[in-house]
Design a protein that fits this description.
alpha+beta, four-stranded antiparallel β-sheet, elongated
Length: about 140
């Protein structure tokens, strides 16, 4: 079983079925005869650029990343806070990963990296000034 084949099957599944969790994805892959660990599925989801939405996993198209970010922010972002060089984002439950994927795809130079939990994202910025700039940029999306 190659990685490309497994990822192709993942894309086929999310395009034809509503899959909302990695456990569901693993079960559907097993039905197709493909065994995959949670770590492997997480990596595949990231590499394929999938985002978890209210309707399940979906592809984020690279050429529409800006529009996708605006959509995900509008749909899921609840709060933006500063903690020194960290920007702390609160989302609705289960949606932090979707927003983090959209933010990562933007590759903002002020952001060193992101860590997403269930409803919280930490955006690590290079310094406090850049964190403030990121906070302001995110709030612009909210105020549109």
């Amino acid at each position: 079983m190659t990685k490309n084949y497994r990822q192709g099957q993942i894309l086929k599944l999310i395009r034809t079925k509503r899959i909302t969790t990695q456990d569901e994805l693993a079960r559907e892959l097993r039905v197709e005869g493909i065994e995959a660990t949670q770590v492997t599925l997480s990596r595949d989801i990231r590499e394929l650029g999938l985002a978890k939405t209210a309707d399940g996993y979906r592809e984020i198209l690279a050429d529409s990343a800006g529009a996708e970010l605006a959509t995900v922010i509008t749909e899921f972002l609840l709060d933006v806070r500063l903690a020194q060089n960290l920007v702390v984002l609160k989302t609705s439950a289960g949606n932090a990963n979707s927003l983090a994927v959209a933010l990562d795809s933007e590759e903002w130079p002020e952001v060193a990296g992101t860590v997403a939990g269930d409803d919280t994202i930490f955006l690590a910025c290079w310094d406090e000034q850049r964190a403030k700039a990121v906070q302001e940029r995110l709030l612009e999306f909210v105020n549109q």
